[in-house]
Design brief:
The protein is of the alpha+beta class. Helix content is 47%, strand content 17%.
Amino acid sequence: MPLHAQSHGQSFLALASNRFRGEGLYLLDEPEAALSVSGELALLAVVAHAAQVGAQFIIATHSPVLLACPDAVIFECDEAGVTPRGYEDVDAVRLTRTFLEAPERFLRAALDETEL
């Protein structure tokens, strides 16, 4: 199917699948913006496979799915600067996990804060 006939996420995954090869350096800025969770998993598979055959990636992301890429070196950027982190220590991972454990608590707090 032509890229222009696909959704943003579908066309991005098609591009990634066909372009991300070994021996390349790829810079991605929040690629999850166009993707569902299943799309993020598909991109993770493409990235992991390309990395196995020599590609290198620098990915700016808030996605716990993409952050879980095998053998990834994770850096977190915040007020303190750029700090190496383990997967479990990244704010995006901790916050997502906490949200999934008790979404009603987060929703209640978010909705209370946005009342007019």
